[in-house]
């Protein structure tokens, strides 16, 4: 499932492959992906020149010169990238943004949990009002992370995956960040000392930056998109494998319907 590093990778690849793309027409191959706005609404307003590619949490944003923004919610399997030949799109393409200069931006989504919507740029603050701060924002400080947990009695893992508290982290990178910070996913947020909040803040930022860099290292073409669990991870997906620090077998347990991976020796 795409998380913050994967969404950031897509944005940077789009900027490389199709700077200042002019969308002249939108071809919608699966109507459900543009609900509830509808096909005609999206076709009408998802046209113009892309002034900026951006990201908010796990959303890819295309800011147009018309004052509208295309918001691509990636869902479970969404991947947005430039293709040279829109007449022969990839098998799971759901939406095509046809470009005046040739080629297209394709949204490929095998499981069709993604969404494409258009919003006036002036309304984006309201659209994203429920999202927490961006962890890679230079203004995001450790005290912001600590303060977001004030009054809560939640396990750290659930706290990090709550998009209202901090944006963009999902199951994979929450687990990896906690390992990097040497904090157990079951720890209550109300038990952390300030030094541990500082360590967690630094670990989140370091882990996400490395994930983005690693994704670029192992890909060479815009259509290539390794899922995060194919990258070199410390604990996620490594049940019973030796911990990369202490060689103790990595543990896996299911909480709230999601698998949690951790080292019982290194994380406390």
Model description:
- The chain has 268 residues and is an alpha+beta fold.
- It folds into 2 domains: 4-127, Alpha-Beta Barrel (N-terminal domain of MutM-like DNA repair proteins); 142-262, Orthogonal Bundle (Helicase, Ruva Protein, domain 3).
- It has 7 helices and 10 strands.
- The strands form 2 sheets. The chain has an 8-stranded antiparallel sheet. A two-stranded antiparallel sheet has the order 9-10.
- The protein is globular, with a radius of gyration of 20 Å.
- The relative contact order is 0.14.
Short description:
With 268 residues, this protein is an alpha+beta fold. The protein contains 7 helices and 10 strands.
Which features characterize this protein?
single chain; 268 residues; alpha+beta; N-terminal domain of MutM-like DNA repair proteins; Helicase, Ruva Protein, domain 3; 2 domains; eight-stranded antiparallel sheet; two-stranded antiparallel ribbon; globular
* Number of helical stretches of at least 4 residues: 7
How can the largest sheet be summarized?
Answer: 8 strands, antiparallel
Spatial gap, N to C terminus = 27 Å
Mean pLDDT: 95
How many runs of DSSP E, i.e. beta strands? 10
In sequence order, what are the helices and strands, one letter per element?
HEHEEEEEEEHHHHHEE
User: At the fourth CATH level, what is the homologous superfamily of the largest domain?
Assistant: MutM-like, N-terminal
Number of domains: 2
Indicate the proportion of strand residues.
15-25%
CATH-derived topology of the largest domain: N-terminal domain of MutM-like DNA repair proteins
Uncertain segments of ≥5 residues (pLDDT<50)?
Answer: none
CATH architecture of the largest domain: Alpha-Beta Barrel
Helical content class: 25-40%
* Spatial extent as radius of gyration: 20 Å
Class of the largest domain, according to the CATH hierarchy? Alpha Beta
SS-based class: alpha+beta
Strand arrangement, major sheet: 5-7-6-1-2-3-4-8
Morphology call: globular
